[in-house]
Amino acid sequence: MDGELWLVVGLGNPGPGYAGNRHNAGFMVLDVLAARTGGRFRSHRSRADVVEGRLAGRRVVLAKPRSYMNESGGPVAGLRDFFKVPAERIVVVHDELDIPFGAVRLKRGGGAGGHNGLRSIAKSLGTLEFLRVRFGIGRPPGRMDPAAFVLKDFSAAERKELDLQVELAADAVECLLAEGLQAAQNSYHSRSAS
């Protein structure tokens, strides 16, 4: 089992203009995971930047699609085909409006919940049965359009906690790889958002 390859995909939008956006939480977590492997992202023909290495005793490919969020499925399907990874060993790290900022939740499957990146991946993979590490960003204030909210940078107050929350989500990915979904849920769902 230890030799099986896992694909961990962080969702976001490419380019420096999006780097601090809430929608780029997945990219932020993948940057931490890449640093933990000691690897550097390099361009892959699947239209993603990848790092191959080991995390939590597992062989992993860490990937950040170079497409925009709503077209993430093509690169993810390309990576799945290239590395021959089944859906049950694909982990997608993404921002989640329905979870308060500072909380991390894990699950397998479920709907896209209005998340265009997840919708694109489900369509391209032909299944929703991949694993998800959901990084809570909370709901927009007042009547702000959620589509506008996710493309804004984290607030000053959130930025004080952001590095810690990104590290926590990276820890959750490692726990998922090492111990499985149930154990990771038990560890991370009991932690309340600060």
Automatic annotation (TrEMBL):
It comes from Thermomonospora cellulosilytica. Keywords: Cytoplasm, Hydrolase, RNA-binding, tRNA-binding. SUPFAM superfamilies: Peptidyl-tRNA hydrolase-like (SSF53178). InterPro entries: Pept_tRNA_hydro, Pept_tRNA_hydro_CS, Pept_tRNA_hydro_sf. The record marks D95 as: Stabilizes the basic form of H active site to accept a proton. Hydrolyzes ribosome-free peptidyl-tRNAs (with 1 or more amino acids incorporated), which drop off the ribosome during protein synthesis, or as a result of ribosome stalling. This is Peptidyl-tRNA hydrolase. It is found in: Cytoplasm.
